[in-house]
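Justification of computing resources. Each target in the renewal requires a structure prediction run like the one illustrated here; the chain below, 164 residues long, is used simply to show the kind of job we budget for.
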Amino acid sequence: MISVLFICHGNICRSPMAEFILKDMVEKEGIADSFHIESRATSTEEIWNGVGSPVYPPAREELRRNGIGKTPFTDFSEKRARQLRYDEYDEYDFLIGMDSMNMRNIERMTGHTRGGKIRKLLEFTGSDRDVSDPWYTGQFGDTYRDCVNGCKAFLDYLRQEKMI
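Resulting structure tokens:
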């Protein structure tokens, strides 16, 4: 089983989009049973009294517009923001951040450095570019495309490494 944890600042836009995009991809390829995929936040801004905010409405709309969320495996209706824990470094094979600030926070929060398990999503495409943050840009379609490209490249990487 390959365990993947996508991480962004609040866990309401980019990381849940990547989580459910990858879930959709592996389900369509018939390899979902080989994966455990989740997402987390580096901050607690979207977690109140221990309860995380749901996926941000425009992010949900973008996923639905692209046909994601129709199966139990890709259903994001119950998804709530959760913060990354120190011990999750040991629980996951890949901790994948969305931007440079996330990468610094992941390193700080886990006590481990970038490389190996800790990667930035678009690195799998050969780019060091950050995934567009729709919280600031309002461009959820751009973020969706970034996540699709990164997830496709991640699956290609896993194939190349003979992990799937």
